[in-house]
């Protein structure tokens, strides 16, 4: 059982469309990180959110941390084929601040 | 500047054998964490080494062990391999033990147990 549930698991969209990926838990996290992983590679850190309600923007990507620090979302505007990949959310807990707990991932495919 | 390097990139072993995977962190980073990623799932934390000591362990049996050397490189050892140990093994490097600033991952070692 995943402590962090991501939805959807798979997403196939056309270039130019918008999308949102969700990361939900019943547990509180001290911080939450989003990574993107491409085939044959390790995850690459996109952003870290720490404060409940925090919103961070990275070009066309918007990340939000829930007020209660139990959930997060990633919104991509005008998706491009280069956004294709596996998106992973990962949480850190205060009492185990060195152990990332990952969600199962959302596999995104953006078709040209 | 070199990123996190892992070796070997691919490995095929037989059930019951032993395997050693290696990781060199980013220069100046003192923490190395190991994760197992089974196909179709997110990575799972195995353990972390910081300043040559194990600083945390996930839900993995003693079959999995590790070591950190004086130069902060690390080894992951897996004894008595099972088919279910087939996975991508990822090494993650950070300057501090805590992960609030994020981790830099290597490209992983793909282990296949037959």
Task: Explain the layout of strands and helices.
The complex is a heterodimer of chains A (112) and B (114).
Chain A: E1 5-7, E2 10-14, E3 19-24, E4 31-37, E5 44-49, E6 55-58, E7 61-65, E8 71-76, E9 85-93, E10 96-102, E11 106-111
Parallel strand pairs in A: 2-11
Antiparallel strand pairs in A: 1-3, 3-8, 4-5, 4-9, 6-7, 7-8, 9-10, 9-11
Chain B: E1 5-7, E2 10-13, E3 19-24, E4 31-37, E5 44-50, E6 53-57, E7 64-68, E8 74-78, E9 87-94, E10 104-105, E11 109-113
Parallel strand pairs in B: 2-11
Antiparallel strand pairs in B: 1-3, 3-8, 4-5, 4-9, 5-6, 7-8, 9-10, 9-11
Written account of the structure:
The complex is a heterodimer of chains A (112) and B (114). Chain A is globular, with a radius of gyration of 13 Å. In chain A, strands 2, 4, 5, 9, 10 and 11 form a 6-stranded mixed sheet that branches. Chain A has 112 residues and is mostly beta strands. Chain A is 0% helix and 57% strand. Chain A has one domain (5-111): Immunoglobulins (Immunoglobulin-like, Sandwich). Chain A contains no helices and 11 strands. In chain A, strand 4 (31-37) and strand 5 form a beta hairpin. Chain A has strands at residues 5-7, 10-14, 19-24, 31-37, 44-49, 55-58, 61-65, 71-76, 85-93, 96-102, 106-111. Chain B is mostly beta strands and 114 residues long. Chain B has a single domain (5-97, 104-113), classed as Sandwich (Immunoglobulin-like). Chain B is built from no helices and 11 strands. In chain B, strands 2, 4, 5, 6, 9, 10 and 11 form a 7-stranded mixed sheet that branches. A 4-stranded antiparallel sheet of chain B has the order 1-3-8-7, with no helix packed on it. The model of chain B has no long low-confidence stretch (mean pLDDT 94). Chains A and B meet through strand 4, strand 5, strand 9 and strand 10 of A and strand 4, strand 5 and strand 10 of B.
